[in-house]
């Protein structure tokens, strides 16, 4: 089932997935917002420029499927300045996201929404993290007037800052750039875990 994803002009392209779920704007919604590179898949300082370079981190796909099967809704919020820099095409990016959705679906889970910022650092958009534009788009999609308390998982400070700006609960993972980020001043209340699987374990423990 293809996730919903966005076009560079920000228009949402409806994939095969179902209708937007009209979740009420309350904080007990089981929604999680994940960063992509360094949380779900390996990251590289040379960017992830092809489907071959898009390699899931150990346990991340299984963790997403476990969370999804437990009733959580999964959204991804990712900066993809490589598009603006000309390192890869939108077609390649969408192929990575289709692969992600496919792998999670094979394990019985679903990635419902992937929102990315296609812009470069100097484009002045509102969707490049640490700005919270992607998070607002995700809240709109799920019909939420608040993301207060919604867990967001990142490996970079900007991921946490973007989520905290709209009330999310910040989780840092040590994968990707996370070990380095852990030495920076983090948003109050940030919880630190080794990887996404450990975050999911903590969210699912009774
Ligand atoms: O972690 P998410 O948001 O999913 O994606 C990050 C990537 O878009 C790239 O973001 C770049 O930052 P700049 O966009 O050049 O500042 C660099 O950090 C790259 O190493 C990284 O692969
Ligand atoms: Mg990242
Ligand atoms: Zn943007």
UniProtKB/TrEMBL annotation:
GO molecular function ontology, one term from the record: metal ion binding
Locations listed in the record: Cytoplasm
Cofactor requirement: Zn(2+); Mg(2+)
Signal peptide coordinates: none
Zinc found in the keyword field: yes
Transmembrane regions listed in the UniProt entry: none
Main location: cytoplasm
PANTHER family: D-GLYCERO-BETA-D-MANNO-HEPTOSE-1,7-BISPHOSPHATE 7-PHOSPHATASE
Family, similarity comment: Belongs to the GmhB family.
Name of the protein in its database record: D-glycero-beta-D-manno-heptose-1,7-bisphosphate 7-phosphatase
Organism: Pseudomonas jilinensis
């Amino acid at each position: 089932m293809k996730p919903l994803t966005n076009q560079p002009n920000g228009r949402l392209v409806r994939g095969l997935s179902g209708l937007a779920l009209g979740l009420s704007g309350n904080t007990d919604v089981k929604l999680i917002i994940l960063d992509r590179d360094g949380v779900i898949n390996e990251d590289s300082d040379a960017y992830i420029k092809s489907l071959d370079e898009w390699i899931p981190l150990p346990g991340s796909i299984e963790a997403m499927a476990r969370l999804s099967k437990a009733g959580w809704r999964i959204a991804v919020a990712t900066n993809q300045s490589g598009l603006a820099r000309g390192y890869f095409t939108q077609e390649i990016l969408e192929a990575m996201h289709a692969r992600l959705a496919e792998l999670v679906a094979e394990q019985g889970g679903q990635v419902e929404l992937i929102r990315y910022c296609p812009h470069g650092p100097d484009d002045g958009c509102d969707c490049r993290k640490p700005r919270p534009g992607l998070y607002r788009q995700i809240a709109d999609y799920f019909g939420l007037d608040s993301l207060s308390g919604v867990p967001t998982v990142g490996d970079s400070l900007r991921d946490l800052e973007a989520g905290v700006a709209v009330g999310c609960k910040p989780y840092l993972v040590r994968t990707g750039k996370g070990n380095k980020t852990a030495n920076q001043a983090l948003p109050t209340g940030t919880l630190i875990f080794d990887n996404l699987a450990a975050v999911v374990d903590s969210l699912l423990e009774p």
